[in-house]
Amino acid sequence: MASIQPARNEHLDAVAALEAVTFPEDAISKRSFRRFIESPSADFQVLLLNEKVIGYTVVLYRNNTNLARLYALVVEKEHRSKGYGRRLLQAAEDLADERHSLFLRTEVATSNTVGQQLMNSEGFRAIELREAYFPPSASQSTDALVLQKLLPRYEMGEDAGVGATEEYVPMLTQSTEFTCGPASLLMAMDYFGRPSSDPQAEELEIWRQATTIYMTSGHGGCGPHGLARAAFQRGLKVRVEVNTDQPLFVDSVRQEQKKTVMQRIQQADMTYLEKHGVPIVVRDYDVTLIKEDLSQGCLVMVLISTYQFDGIRAPHWVLICAADDDFIYINDPDYDTLPWESPTERQYLPVPISTFSKAFGYGGRKQKAAVVLSADLTTK
Length: 380
What we know:
Blueprint: E1 3-6, H1 12-22, H2 30-38, E2 42-49, E3 52-61, E4 67-75, H3 84-98, E5 103-109, H4 113-121, E6 125-130, E7 144-150, E8 162-163, H5 180-191, H6 199-210, E9 211-213, E10 221-222, H7 224-233, E11 236-242, H8 256-275, E12 280-282, H9 287-295, E13 299-305, H10 307-310, E14 315-323, E15 327-331, E16 349-352, H11 353-359, E17 369-375
Parallel strand pairs: 4-5, 11-12
Antiparallel strand pairs: 1-2, 2-3, 3-4, 5-7, 6-7, 8-14, 9-10, 11-17, 13-14, 13-17, 14-15, 15-16
């Protein structure tokens, strides 16, 4: 019976020989395989049948990222089409998942249709074509498809963590590049039994009501007080969480006139909220407090910086639906954050808590803003 186990030094000769037969022009060296055994940033496993090496995988991890790379997956030719490749792939995914990797990525030659079919059947998606990626070879094409899979998936049940754990929060993709806040609010409204009859029209109406932030270019964005005001007017129970009592997000605005406008709008929204008894709490609203609110049946809209995800420092509203010991699960309304993922796959998107903590906050002073939402049981 075939078994998969961590590679040891006594496996190196067989692995190197199989590698040389499979990739004669571009074989990984025996020395490199030995390093994979020793490296804390690699998982190197072999597939044994009657104590003989008939396959192997290597998964590499990069420090300070949530990306794992499937560097090698090989099955001996006479043992292919027997399910061994799938077993190795699933084992590699499990290892990457155990390390809390968010994505597993690999490169497959465009001529390797069998490999592509295996990856596609296991949920990998093509995100890029790299020309002349592999060296010239008689065994495969030089061009490669970059394939990627989102590893952790949220599953409801006894170990589902806290938050919307019994019924999924509906997913809505924003219809414009500047309405992430309104789209997040519309998802919460739907979950709490107040769905919009015309989401696209109401998305723009909420944006019109809640816009407070000047962008470097294009349309403005929505601030927490404006979104809280819009949520309250639509029948939800609301609380605003910020970490400063100073005007929010004015540091990046150079013109004094624009700063004044932002401050006036924020003050008007705050005055409205205070008049109607909507709490505005000033403190460091962190993951522990978020989990407490989720456990009480709330959903939480948070403003994050997308730098941790795409390298661009842009403010972006997302809706936190659930959390557990390892991940914050968000509904991300933006189709550009993970363009290779479908809307369904951006529902309950797992973000490692360490990554979320870095992303939660915007600007040089890392100003935090959140809108805590729940059903208002006093209204119908």
